[in-house]
Amino acid sequence: MLFAPAGLGPPFRCASLRPQMRALYAKEVSVEELAEGAFKAILRFIRFILLEAICEFLIYWVGRIFLNIVTLGNYPRGRQVEDHEGRIICTGFAVIILTIVLISLYV
């Protein structure tokens, strides 16, 4: 049976594959390598979920509650909540950082 991979020149017999060529066509993958890849994927997923939970839930709601208290419930309301989500998250982040700084100064 003749075999001619693209860009390798004239066809040659599969039985006469050089060791370097065999490594290209039949790479052995150990179970440890497969488990390591799966473990890394699971850790990336958990990290993504935690970051989303922290940003979308904790920081967002801290910012929204703070802005509602400071503006006596006038901001954000209605459509402003969707339009100014980034500002709300930045406010929440600033409030959390300022709270940590104030606690560290006075404790």
UniProtKB/TrEMBL annotation:
Keywords for this protein: Membrane, Transmembrane, Transmembrane helix
UniProt keyword Transmembrane, yes or no: yes
Protein name: Uncharacterized protein
Membrane-crossing segments per the record: 45-67, 88-106
Protein species of origin: Pseudoalteromonas tunicata D2
